[in-house]
Structures
1.
Amino acid sequence: MRQALAIALAHLSRRAALVPALALAVLFSALPGATGVTHAAAAPLKAVIIVGPTHDLTASNLQSGETLALLAESYGMDVRRVFHPKATWANVLANIQGANLVAYLGHGNGWPSPYGPFQEKTKNGFGLNPYEGAGKNTVEYYGANKIRNNVVLAPKAIVLLNHLCYSAGNGEGDDIPTWSIAHQRVDNFAAGFLYVGAKAVFAYRSGSVATVINQLFTTDKTIEGIFKTTESWSGWNGTDPRKLDSARMPGNVNFLDPHATKGFERAVSGDLDLTADSWRSSPAGGSGSGGSVAPPTADTTPPSVPQDLSGTPLGYRRISLVWQPSTDNSGGEIKYQIFRNGTKIAATTNAFFTDRPAYAGTYKYKVRAKDVAGNKSAFSTVVSAQAIKGELTGALAPDTTSPSVPQGLTAESLGYRRVGLSWQPSSDDRPGTIRYRVFRNGVRIATVTTASFTDRPDLAGTYKYKVRAVDVAGNKSDFSVVVQGAAVKGPL
């Protein structure tokens, strides 16, 4: 096998110069039998190596991905390469099902980050080609929710995240975050993969994950032992390592090993006691889509209960309902079910709703939250509100005063066709949630309850933005000043 691998590597080097001397050294040192432990599964374990478009780093990531693929093949794995420019979501799904090992190199779109709000349609997953043949500067993100809803890994699967921003704790630049921010980033990025069957998620923002593959096949170490392996690159720092319980996937552990000066570049999440021997003896993914692989553990945790529900009469049988948003362990979209006098009347993803009963009178309202898995929270407190037949009078006089105009609107270019908008919150003479309508080139593109919004136009270019505020009675402020924002195609 050593001779066959040498021939393959020599051919690869002559063809595309993809494997540097250091990678060759890792591959040869990692051959079966290097430390006396060999893999002898009846069916080959399945590895999927995914390399997404990464702008100027695409070539080096393709090189690193091929190095990992050759290393996995040297141990007899059934290796699937899903490489740029064919690293599409469809091709990932066609290969990843039932995988025992998944390695991803590409862009990391995690949270917390400057690009709010938090959601997992695009965050904490893969950055891929939107179509086969797309350029290295065109990235489509498929987040943790896409993974949860479409992927099933083999039991005890291992995931390797390499060169991704946010996945190991550090963000995009050189600034080192607090422990709290770093932990959230690691926990969030690992959660989707753990949900679909992974037992461990290694995140190395720099260096190589090749040693992890080597250790999985040549030792009987635990995941923690593999993570603590000392080497000249990507190795154990031991400066201030901390094990922190996962908030996203209870029962799992996030283990962060920061560098004294470089910050959070290494982390592992999951079952730290899983051994390499146990992983090697797990059911092989084989050549199909996973076959009898067990489905992921069901999400049985309900969202938090909606708080501070209030009902405000608006006149003409309208009642404004407002509450504080719920949170959920999955990070997915939350829907709210609204009940009037015990009967469900509506569902919405907003933390507000305007009801208009057919008759005037006093009504009782309650709200509960529902997550993407169908788990329902307990009901909020019950509030009573009056539907007035006509115009409000006296203490319930109609609200005809508009909220203040949003001030200080700014538009910041964030790269990759993202424009960050922010402004000062508006005020209003009546209590209740103020909503902001965001306009791009005169067309409304979003309604938010926060004084910020990140826009991502389909095309690069310069756009004009303005914002107005709307109160619970529907009164609209004047528009803010108009500002221009540049959607830049690639990095700044």
2.
Amino acid sequence: MFVDKFGKVAMSIWNLSPDVAMHHMLIALRPGPFANSLCMQPVASLDELRRRAAKFMQLEAMIEFKN
């Protein structure tokens, strides 16, 4: 998943500012419900971003299962 890959790259950069990491993460997201929700209700931390991403992944899995 994108968030996991981004997290690994971000962790490999020494002294990376969380604000810079979050900015680049949001720019790299494809348009869709998750990106839209982040624009409407920005997150305060990368941990909150991971939690919200996990919720959207669960929602997508549930929708796929029902179809």
3.
Amino acid sequence: MKEITAIIRRDRLHLTKQALDEMGCSSMSIQSVEGRGKQKGDVCREIDPEMPDTFCTAVKLTPTPSTYAMEHSLPKVALFVPKRMVTMIVPDDQVEGVVKAIVQVNKSGRRGDGKIFVSQVEAALRVRTGESGDAAVN
């Protein structure tokens, strides 16, 4: 068994869940997270589908920290970009397909497309039934 953790853009979550459902991998946990990568959170602008419509009538955009700092005479602040973290446990033979599906849906070629981590899971136990191993995962 492997644990797959994918950190993806918020607006790609629905398509990611849909692609995984089509593969028969519907068991997952999803969290709202914030973080930063190599660019240290310094992004030019990121489209933000969760921004209220009243914020900007033209395009829903999140200002960069450097723009904020310049407008408010502050030093550049660290920005943590909002993302979604999808975590799932899958049998070893499904790992490659799941990773490919996540990459296919989320790859745009731009910074911030996300990261995928694959880790070994030593044991799994379903609390309700007492099942263990692969039987507890599916």
